[in-house]
Amino acid sequence: MLLDELRWFVVLAETEHVTDAAAELGVTQPTLSRALARLESQVGTPLFDRTGRRLRLNEYGQIMLEHARRGIAEMDAARSRIAALLDPDSGLVRLAFLHSTANWFVPEVLRQFRALAPAVRFELFQGAAHDIAERLRTGQADVAITSPRPVQVPCSWRVLYVERLCLAVPAEHRLVGRARVRLSEVADETFIALGADFGLRQLTDQVWAESGITPEIAFEAMEIPTMEGLVAAGFGVAVVPVPRPGRGDPSVIYVPLSDTRVKREIGMAWVKGRELSPAAARFAEFVSTTADHA
User: Fold this and answer.
1) Of which family is this protein a member (predicted)?
2) pTM for this one?
3) What is the pLDDT of residues 212-223, one digit of tens each?
4) Minimal CA–CA distance to 66: which of 25, 132, 14?
5) Taking the CA atoms of the chain, what radius of gyration do you get in angstroms?
6) Sign of CA dihedral 143, 148, 149, 150
7) Which of 60, 59, 33 is nearest to 44 (CA)?
8) Are 155 and 182 members of one domain?
9) 212 φ/ψ sector (left φ>0, alpha ψ -120 to 50, else beta)
10) Residue 153 falls inside a structural domain
11) What does the pLDDT look like over 243-285, one tens digit per residue?
């Protein structure tokens, strides 16, 4: 089974359309169809259900997709490690990171590291905590900067920094001017929140439960800036990390929470027992050292 054919299968599984997959891969439809037929022959069963021109990944295909992604990631990692041994100052780091670390922490760390190791290449993925954990699990990411600590796979964990949470309210809100606020004081308010799978949302759910709140949620966003924008527009209030100076929404007031224990740990994770490439290990050590001196 050729590695290229596994890559083709992954693209076909993600698009579920031969024409679209062939165009993305730059191969002809007959070439892609023959490759799929060879793969299905080797596996011993169809991997897709055919409905007209559409393909639908079946239960066997789901299993193959999971292992194909993992196998491709392992082979890519092997090539990266070999390349790094041949040239210790180069190599590839596959880094996954939270949306909310993308506006200052991750770019600054990358800037500093690239000044020391300009030949090291990066494959970057920005997403939610559950997507990041999945990339770690399948080997598509070497290192992740995320929150909370992933539980989907056994991970080593290094806390990089801690964020206090606060209540974001519109500029004309009744709580503007307060030094701090208890969440129970806004139990009847409408909230803007992240989706249920996001790490910050899970922490917020915990805080709501501890405060005896069953919130009315007006909208579930994909990013914190969207939450803040909707708060500014008067659609509700939100629990968000205290923004760094100059980085919050200027139309939003951030009121500290009375419970100073309400915090979010941002950390670095990598899979236990999976050896990092020299480049990834070097980057992880650099991030740890940077956090120590932050």
Assistant:
1) Belongs to the LysR transcriptional regulatory family.
2) 0.71
3) 999 999 999 999
4) 14
5) 23
6) negative
7) 60
8) no
9) left
10) yes
11) 988 888 999 999 999 987 789 999 999 999 998 988 899 999 9
